[in-house]
Model the fold of this input.
Amino acid sequence: MIIQELRKVYRKDLEKLKEEIGLYRNETNLWKIERQIANSAGNLCLHLVGNLNHFIGTTIGKTGYVRNRDRQMSPNRDLAE
Done:
């Protein structure tokens, strides 16, 4: 039962993230840092994807995923990896 609840929560939150990111009219704005913003929206998304791959994939799913933060944080990387 906890798996189904986690799925609901993650799905809801990821759909909201997708919606918010989709509001950017220009993709290059995802990588901008302005005023007091410490991390761009794109960078925060890359962090989330890495965290989820590690937590869900490696920790829960035992997929063998090995996190490479330098590669993960590159905005030019292949998101399908």
